[in-house]
Amino acid sequence: MKHPRCDQTPAWAALNAHFQGSGRRFDLRQAFAADAARFDKLSVQAPEVFADLSKNLLDDATLALLLQLARDCGLEAQRDAMLAGEAINHTEGRAVLHTALRAPAGFGPQSEQVQEVLERLLTYVEQVRDTARSGMRHVVHIGIGGSDLGPQMVVPALDSFAHGELKLHFVSNVDGHDLAPVLRGLSPHDTLFVVASKTFTTQETLANAQAAKAWFLGQGGTDIARHFVATTTNVAAAAAFGITTTFGFWDWVGGRYSIWSAIGLPIALAIGADNFRAFLAGAHAMDQHFAQAPLQANLPVLLGLVDVWYRNFHGFGSRSVAPYHQGLKRLPAYLQQLEMESNGKGVDLDGNALAYATSPVVWGEAGTNGQHAYFQMLHQGTDVIPVEFIAVKTPNYGPDLAPVLKPLLADQHQKLLANCLAQSQALMQGKTTEQALTERAPTASAALDAQTVARHRSFPGNRPSTTFVLEALTPRSLGALIAMYEQRVFVSGALWGINSFDQWGVELGKALCSALLPRVASGDVSGLDSSTAGLLTRLRA
Ligand SMILES: O=P(O)(O)OC[C@H]1O[C@H](O)[C@H](O)[C@@H](O)[C@@H]1O
């Protein structure tokens, strides 16, 4: 069924008028002063994730119009079509059913095959974990993009749940500087290689897998069948490569949504079967919330609506993610693929060029590190960049924490939380020149007059942010958090009327790379543009 594109709806026109009127002049400070209940009204408790949306540029009228936009675009019907397994990835003729991977047995589409692989995978996982001390203690996961970013993000995030004897390594880049240092110091007899590729055709992954296999045999390794496993939808290609132990998944799982499939093998190896099931269960709980909660209390829906409000009306071009948990340091990279590969599209479902913006740039760094690098721009730069803070109430430093560290790290955790709160407060409050004038600036140049210094030291404020709070970073809460982001990306994509589930934009570079590869070897630059020819010649010289 066809649904109206956002810009073809009455709500879109009404939002435009509202933005041109009071919407663009909205002031957070006044909104908080005028309404003591703002936090209560604009915060949502979803499964495992509490979200404070109150520091966003939203008033009742904006929210009502955004919810109307969701209805005008048939968001609920679009959501239900995805969850029911309709082929909503229409350019590839595929369903989009990553939600089926985390549903309990017997629930929804594809359950039987999902459970069959999951059981086999988790049985294998427990065998490897049980014998890690005497068997394979190192796992080298080889994959890229959606076959890498998820495990690479989640394994350190859940470090305190990890098997003490198993060490996980990740190799993705075709650059040998990725593989070489990982293999240095490893020995084939206690190393397991996991070759992860949905298609099993990806240049980088196949090159690294070939090199790993050659290294394994060269170092005296013998049992490829035991030391190499593949996670893929292309079991035949893995077999042709010489890998007989394979855990499959299906074309209705997008690469960037595949963390819940066999691609999650390294996560399951690290945290074990029960914790992996909890990770899936957390995501399923968020799916149920997304499927059932009324739009105005539906967290992924509200987030997606705010994204559209900022991108298309305020014109904000990027969003920064600041997880205040070191374990989540790879979350921004994970979210980059999730959001920018999904929604970085320029045509609607019928292939018509869009007259409005789609995916913002998503970027970030773990807090507090980012504060000492680019937060300057967030506070005083000329662009308004909404920031997303993630705070975790209760830390977990894992087993065997030295007793002397306990009170010290408890204190550090308080500092971490205070920093997180201070940043969103500072973005919102800002500081006027008059306020700055009342303060002494110890490092200010004596040659400058006070007014000039105060202008440099003032902050515009009224800069929006969202803060998510998790009780603790656990397999379950992390599963829910990731699912929340996935569904939110679905929401903005559905309103924009784009296909969030293909990625044709990565193909041209791959094709040109294939054409250039023999030229890099031969030096033949005939017919190339002068820049490419000049660079190629220089790189070969
Ligand atoms: O899993 P693979 O088939 O090896 O693909 C790995 C990655 O490469 C592609 O270029 C896509 O842009 C990604 O969506 C995908 O996750």
From TrEMBL:
It catalyses: alpha-D-glucose 6-phosphate = beta-D-fructose 6-phosphate. InterPro entries: G6P_Isomerase (IPR001672), G6P_Isomerase_C (IPR023096), Phosphoglucose_isomerase_CS (IPR018189), SIS_dom_sf (IPR046348), SIS_PGI_1 (IPR035476), SIS_PGI_2 (IPR035482). One of its GO terms (biological process) is glycolytic process. The active site is at E341 (proton donor), H372, K510. It comes from the Bacteria. It is found in: Cytoplasm. It is an enzyme of class 5 (isomerase). One of its GO terms (molecular function) is glucose-6-phosphate isomerase activity. Belongs to the GPI family. This is Glucose-6-phosphate isomerase.
